[in-house]
Amino acid sequence: MLKYLAQAVHEAHLKLSGMVDANKDKPKPVDAPALVAAWQRYEPVLKLWRKQKDRYFAEDPTPLKNSSYRLANVAQIATSQAERIAREPGISAVSEAARLAFADFIEPFVDESSRPALILAIAQTLWDIGEKARAVRLVAGRALV
After folding, report:
1. What is the CA radius of gyration of the chain?
2. Which of 87, 105, 111, 129 is 20 to 30 Å from the Cα of 57, by its Cα?
């Protein structure tokens, strides 16, 4: 069920962003009301996913890795779209929630074999949104050599 929810959110945001392939296409700008409305539709799914993932991660998180990456991709696209229209009403809340979602969905899969640039990007995101303890744990727990 979590995989299908992640897929639905991912496909909905790609469509909103005028993208066919997340790996090749660049997201198109979205107006503030559309982005805020879309994020409000995604939030219940993101909350449910965060709540239920621990049940699955306790056993083996591998089956949910792609789903987690899809949700992180949605958050990353939404963040970049929100930054373009940062002065619009309601966008700062979307931007902060999307940045937190990006870190939440990528962080469980970061390990010693992860690229240092990815680790630093996640740590910087966490630091910027005030999750300084998580950022320090992430960097201190990994060898960035």
Report:
1. 15
2. 129
Q: CB-based burial of residue 106 (10 Å sphere; 0-12 exposed, 13-18 middle, 19+ buried)?
A: buried
Helices 65-84 & 91-106, crossing angle to 10 degrees? 150
> The tokens of 31 are what?
């107006």
Token pair in block for residue 107? 């962080």
Backbone dihedral region of 98: left (phi > 0), alpha (psi from -120 to 50 degrees) or beta? alpha
Q: How many other C-beta atoms lie within 10 A of the C-beta of residue 79?
A: 19
Predicted pLDDT of residue 123: 92
pTM (predicted TM-score): 0.86
**For 55-107, how does the pLDDT look when each residue is reduced to its tens digit (9 = 90+)?**
776 666 777 888 899 999 999 999 999 999 989 988 999 999 999 999 999 98
